[in-house]
Every structure is written in C-alpha cells, then in structure tokens.
Amino acid sequence: MRQMIEAVDLTKDYGSVTAVNRVSFSVAEGELFGLLGPNGSGKTTMIRMLTGQVRPTAGSARVMGLDVADDPIAVRRLVGIIPEQETPPSFLTAEEYLHFVARIRNLDAVEERCDHWFDLLEFGEKRNVLCKDLSRGTRQKLMFAQAFLHRPRLALIDEPLINLDPIVQRTVKDFLEDYVQDGGTVFLSTHILEIAAEICDRIGVIHNGRLLSCGRTEDLAGSGRSLERFFLDLVRGDAGA
Amino acid sequence: MPVPDLFFTMMKEEWRMHSTVFGSRGFALFPVVVATFAFLGSLTLPVFSDVLPHQTAALLALVLFLLMGVMVGSFGLMGREFMNRRFGQASLIAYASRSLPVSERRIFAAFFAKDTVYYILLYVLPFAAGFTAATPFVSLDPALGLLAFVSLTLAFLMGLSAVCLLSTLYARSVRLLIGAAAVLAVSGIAVSHSGIPVFPPYAFLLDPAPRPLVLALLLILVPAAASVLLVTVDYPDRTKRFRNSLDPIAGRLRRLGSAHFIAKDALDLLRSEGGAGKVIFSFLLPLGLIWVCLRILIRFIPGIDPLVVFAVLLGVISATIYNWLTEFDSFSAYAFLPVEVAGVIDAKLKSYALANLLPLAVLVLAAATSAGGAGSFLPALATFLSVSAYTLAVTVYLTGLYPNVMLYHAGVFLRYVLATSPALLLLIFASLLNPAYGFLSLLLVLPAALLIARGRTRWRAWEMPGY
Ligand SMILES: Nc1ncnc2c1ncn2[C@@H]1O[C@H](COP(=O)(O)OP(=O)(O)OP(=O)(O)O)[C@@H](O)[C@H]1O
Ligand SMILES: [Mg+2]
C-alpha cells in the first residue's frame, strides 16, 4: 500500500525545548490516523513540520512522495491543511475567502465547490458575512471548507472538531469517514480521546515530544481496557519515568 | 474598573507586547535614538542660523510635532476597532470589554490616554532631552529645554485632540464634520484678527506666560473631552452583509498578477472601520498642512520653489501607505497555503504602487496651485516617485511584513533614519538651489530595487526559518 506520510526520526528543538523528539511513523493511503497527546506534547509542531511550515531540526519526512524539506510549497499545493490557531481574514466574507483560496490554488468551478461546502456544513446563510463577524464554530467550518476545496488526497488537520457543536461534529466525522472510504487520507491531531477512539483507524500517542505508542485503535483499546485507561496509564507512566 | 487602573494595565500590556517582540532593550532604546538625533540636530543650529533663525527653527519643530499629533490623532474614527487594530486580537484588555463590566467609553478614554503618554515618552520627551543636552554647546540656556518640552507637548496634543475630534465627528456624520470645520475656520480667522495667538504653543515658547498656556490647554482639553463623549464604540446591531467584491476587483486587476491579493488589500482598507476617513485624516490632512506650511515658509525665503521639497516629503509620507497595507494580515494567514513569502511581499508592492496614485494626485494638485510650471513639476514628479520607491524599499528590507511593529525597535528605527535621511536632506537642499536637481533622486531607484530584492530573501528566511 502506498505510504502518504513517512516520518523518520523527525525532531524539532525550540532552543532548549525539544518539541518533537526522534519520531518515526508512517500513514498509509486511505487511513484515518490520529495523533493523540496532552497539551504541549508536540502535535501542532508535528503537523507544522509535515506541511513545511517549520523545518525539522533533524530527521526527515516524505509527504505524498515529496521530501518536505526540499519543496514545502509543492507539499502544500497537494495537501489540505487546517492550522490550529489561524482564523480566516477579518474583512473578507466567508464566500470571498473561499474564492480567495480557490484563486491561490488555481481552481476551476469555484462556485460549485463553494456551494458544496456551504450546503454540507450548513452555513450558506453566512456566506456574505465578514469573517470577523462569524462565530468561532462557523469560522472553523470555513477553515474546513478551505482545506478540502481542492479535493486533496491527504488532509492534515489540527484539532479539527474544537468549537463545533455536536450536530456539526457528527457531520464532520461522517464526512471524514466518507472521505477515507473514497481513498482519502487524514492525519489529525487531538487531545480528545472519544474522537480518536470513534473515528481513527490508527492512533499514535505522543507525550513530551516522544511517540509512546502507535497502533490500530482496536488493538490499543481492545485488551479489556478503555482507550482512556490506556492513554492515562501510558502518559502517567512516561511522566513518572 | 476606573480609568486610571485601566490605563496602567494597558501601559503594562503595551510594554510587554513591544518588549516580547523585540526584547525589552530594542524597544527601550528607541527614545535614545530619537534623543540622539535631536541632540545632533540642535548642535547644527548655529551653522544654519543665517538661513534659519532660531525662532523659525523652533516654529518648524513645533509644526512637526503638531503634524505628528494630526497623523496619529485619527483614532476617534476607528472607534472600537482602534482598540485592537495595532496588534490584532493581541490586546486582551480591550477585548475584556466583552467579558468585564467595563464601559467601552472608559476603555476608549484609557486607550486615548495610553497612546498619548506613549507618544510623549517615545518622541516628545527624548526630543526635548536631546535638545537640552545640546544647549550648553550652542550657548543657549538649558532651562529652554523644559520650555521646549512643554510647548512641544502642547503642539503635539493640539494636533492630536483636534483631529481626534474631527474624526469622531466624521464617524458620526460627514455633515457634522463639515459644520464643525466651518465653525473652526471662521473662529480661527476671527481670532487671528483679534491679536489672540492662533498657535498658542509657539506663543508660549516665545513668552512663557499663563495666557498662552491656558489657551493651549483649552484647545487641547475641550476637543479631547468632546471626542471621548461623542465617540461611537457600539457594535452595529445587525452584522453587515457584503456581496462578493473580491472577484470583480480581482477581475479588473487580472493583468497585474496576484490580483486576488491586491483585491484583498483593498477590501481590508475599505471595510475596516474608518475606511476612507483614515485616508483623509492620517494622510490627506497632514499633506495639506505641509503644503500650506511650505507656502508660508517661502515667504521668509523668497525665490525658491517648494514643489520639489514637497515631493520629497510626499514620497516619505506615502511610504506609510505600506503600513496600512500590512496592518490586517501576517504571513501566518497564508503559511498553510501554497504561497511564498516573496509572493505576499510582491503583492503588497503592487497594492502599494496602485495606492500611490493617490499621493500622485495630491502632487498634481499641489503643482496646479504653484507657479513653477513644468520646470518644477517634472523634477517633482521624478522626486516623488523615486523617494516613495526608495523609502518603501528601506521599509520592506528592514521590517518585512511588519512595519507597524518593527519600526519601534530602536535598532531598526535607527537604520531606517540613517538609510533615508541623508539622501532626502541632500535632495531637499539641492532642490532649494535649483528644482532641476530633483532629477538626482532617480539615482535612488537602483538601491531601491536592490533593497527589495534583498528584503524578499531576508524575510523569507525569517518567516520560514531553515527554508
Ligand atoms: N514557536 C515556538 N517556540 C518555542 N517553543 C515552542 C514553539 N511552538 C511550540 N513550542 C513548544 O513546543 C512544545 C510542543 O508544542 P505544540 O504546540 O506542538 O503542542 P501541542 O501538542 O500542539 O499542544 P496543544 O494540545 O496545547 O495544542 C511545547 O512545549 C511548546 O511550548
Ligand atoms: Mg496544538
């Protein structure tokens, strides 16, 4: 099976802090991979390295066959990204923002693509509202739409379900499951165990920048323990060590 | 929370924001740089005393600070947005108005006070200190330093509060603004005929008596109080809706390339609060004042044509358009898209070139009201274009996409002044001798191109470390 992400000894130091410490893993095509870890464990740094926003201090990563360090822009052209913090620009409307991204990505049939997302995430009535006046959840929907507008085969999404109400969360989870059904690949980060347990095929547990465990969801949680027990034991054991 | 507490919390916040961006030394040294320049400038006073009598030099300094007040005073216009515009949503305290029981008017008042104090500490006080330090060397009374500080502060505050009031009125209704401006103009004319000083800070400097001081304070406090009372900080009840304008604008600019970025810059400017008003108050109004001052100044020094001098100043001030264009985004907004840092900078440069049509129109207008004809218009045109390009290039090289923040770093500011002022002063002096020397400015185009090329690589390395 084709590997969409292959990380080898990926490391990022910020001064004396090692945010990500010699992490190796791979994600195959059609997988929904979840990087699970507590606050500050290195999830965002990992995604930023895999998408060429931060250069690794050591190690390497190939994304969709490309070496990220060689050509970060080419990687970003291929994949869809939902960053952790970034919100859409204040003074464009939701629709204008999607058109803006479509132009950056040189897309055709922009109207149809936008309408599809306005319908799917049910925020078409906000299309003419300035992004600064949108609720946080609606902005998150917009960031979702932006990431998938070019129908990428790989999406890297950082805490994607935060701020979304249960109804939209359901829609998004269903969308992600359909998306991998159709051959798409997702790398998502989260600290919410339920999400990881519910939708991810495979889970990597990261703590203090080190990948403590990586395996199929049912194997991690399957041995009579809940995923929560497994996660807490792992992280606490690591902190004690 | 009472206004004074708010004020001190904001001061601390402002300090921390600046000092986290540059480390506290870079920010703390900024006033030292200003003081040094004032010191060196004051030392040259005796050299120029034939062409520039001390009184005229003093008047120039006061007008300079009045203008500075005018340029920073348009915040009444921005109302609520003013509170979070400089650092985006980084200003937590201004945002606290949503969650704390603090009235927005109070926050506005505290912000007004904070910005005033900051400008005084950053510019006025160091300028006066530099001058004071120079007094013994140019045989002036050091006590003049204190007088200079007081009158410079008065001049700065006068510009600030007048424009703050005008812009607050403008934000309410244009008719109100026109009415107020008319009343002001009429009373100004009436006053100038009655022997009461029109510019009390200057009168106070010449004769430190209570009367000009009281007059100046009145001219500061009354408009300031009125604008705090009249400012509109409420959110509109309905969120506004806009038809898609990005595509039509980008369509029209398609030939330029990166048209969608230019269209976004335009929409940012037009839709942010204040919109066109910002252009009027922090750009056109000061330029108009400068033009008037220059016309008055040549009465003292007959036989020279002020148009090229004006073009130099116009070019420098035009470069601040770049600050507006970079106010609403940072590279992080594009970092997850297939966009190069250099691409964003290039798009900003194109927006800048387009926006420069406005100062160009100002230049044409100024030329139309001056007597020089083509003999001074062509060199003025060349001067404006090259100075604008060169100042912009220095700004881009030194500050990348963050001129609004970076220019407060002492080292950066120092390099900015050193890179721009010698060439510009030389141009001004040369063009006073003969307007045709304005063509010399074309020599700046080459370094401008080099600086921009260097700036693109420099800021790419900064935004994407390691790449
Ligand atoms: N730009 C930076 N400069 C310095 N240190 C950083 C930087 N970015 C992250 N770090 C540090 O790296 C570590 C990992 O941070 P990261 O943001 O990757 O964690 P995270 O798992 O995404 O956390 P969260 O769940 O809170 O989003 C933290 O200790 C953080 O303080
Ligand atoms: Mg994170």
Question: What features would you highlight for this structure?
Answer:
heterodimer; A: 241 residues; alpha/beta; Rossmann fold; 2 domains; 4-stranded antiparallel beta sheet; 9 helices; 10 strands; globular; B: 467 residues; mainly alpha; 22 helices; binds adenosine-5'-triphosphate; binds magnesium ion; AAA+_ATPase (chain A); ABC-2 type transport system ATP-binding protein (chain A); ABC_Transporter_VariousFunc (chain A); ATP-binding (chain A)
Word description of this protein:
- The complex is a heterodimer of chains A (241) and B (467).
- Chain A has 241 residues and is of the alpha/beta class.
- Chain A has helices spanning 43-50, 72-78, 94-104, 110-120, 136-148, 166-181, 193-199, 217-222, 227-240, and strands spanning 3-14, 17-28, 32-36, 58-63, 66-67, 80-82, 154-158, 185-190, 202-207, 210-216.
- Chain A folds into two domains: 3-79 and 154-240, Rossmann fold, CATH 3.40.50; 86-151, no CATH class.
- In chain A, the strands form two sheets. A six-stranded mixed sheet of chain A has the order 6-7-8-3-9-10, with helices on both faces. Chain A has a four-stranded antiparallel sheet with strand order 2-1-4-5, covered by helices on one side.
- In chain A, β7 (154-158), α6 (166-181) and β8 form a beta-alpha-beta unit.
- Chain A starts with a strand and ends with a helix.
- The model of chain A has no long low-confidence stretch (mean pLDDT 91).
- By secondary structure, chain B is mainly α.
- Chain B is globular.
- Chain B has helices spanning 3-28, 30-43, 45-48, 54-72, 75-85, 92-95, 104-134, 143-172, 174-194, 200-206, 210-230, 246-252, 259-271, 275-300, 307-318, 321-325, 341-355, 357-368, 374-399, 403-406, 410-433, 445-463.
- Chain B is 75% helix and 0% strand.
- In chain B, α13 crosses α17, α15 (307-318) packs parallel to α19 and α19 packs antiparallel against α21 (410-433).
- The interface between A and B is medium-sized, with 33 and 32 residues.
- The complex binds adenosine-5'-triphosphate and magnesium ion.
- Chain A: This is ABC-2 type transport system ATP-binding protein.
- Chain A: It comes from Methanoculleus thermophilus.
- Chain A: It holds the Pfam family ABC_tran.
